[in-house]
Structures are given as structure tokens and as C-alpha cells.
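Appendix B, Record 12. Input sequence as logged:
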Amino acid sequence: MSGYLLDTNVLSEVLKRRPSERMLAKLRAAPATALATSSICAMELRFGATRTPGGAALWHRISRDVLALVRVLPVGLDEAIRAGELLAVLEQRGGPIGVEDVLIAATAQVNELIVVTRNERQFARVPELAVENWWHA
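Logged structural output:
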């Protein structure tokens, strides 16, 4: 694995008034060049910001303090194909997860990244996906 794909809950943790010190320490220890996120996570952050009073200021902060500091990977054809495969496998196993999480997982797999998330139970259902929880690491 060549780096980390930060899930939405990692990115939003950074914005909290009192973020997890353990998670922040792991984040600071990782080389900046090893940090990425998915365009799906950017979509989830934008959705959250638009639903919040003062959303324009929050979005500005997200853009400046979070998204500007990581590579934002697009969901292209390779990611879409892998996501389709993952959805089929998860459905066959009787344990589907949300399409957004499947797209995030597919982006990580195509780019050979470890998903960093607080939602490890959900992502652990995805076959051959490396997952870390920096709140418990």
C-alpha cells in the first residue's frame, strides 16, 4: 500500500472543536504526500455544509483547511468498474453497504491505498480492502 485514503469522518474530525488527539497524532505522523481522499468524501462534506447554518463559512473552512491539504482522487472508469464488482460481491454475500462507501472503497483499491475510517465495521465487509481506525490505533 502506498498511502491512505481518508474517509469523510476523518476529514470532519479535523474540524471539530475538540478532535481526537490520537487520530490527529496519526494524521500528523503520516507524510503529506501519502494522504488522499475521494471526491465522494468531498461530496459528503459539501452536502453536510449546505445543511448547516453558516454553511458557506464552513465550506470555506473545509476547502481551505482540509481539502487543500490532501489529494482528492476522482471516481473514474476504473473506480466505477471496481465499485460494480464490489457491489455484486457484497450483494451475493447478503451484506451490501451504501453506494458511497463502495465508491470510496473502490477508489482506495484502484489507487492501492488504506482506508482510514472510524466506520471500520462497514468497510471491513469489503473484500481485499485494507482498513485502519486511527481512533483506536
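The radius of gyration is 15 Å.
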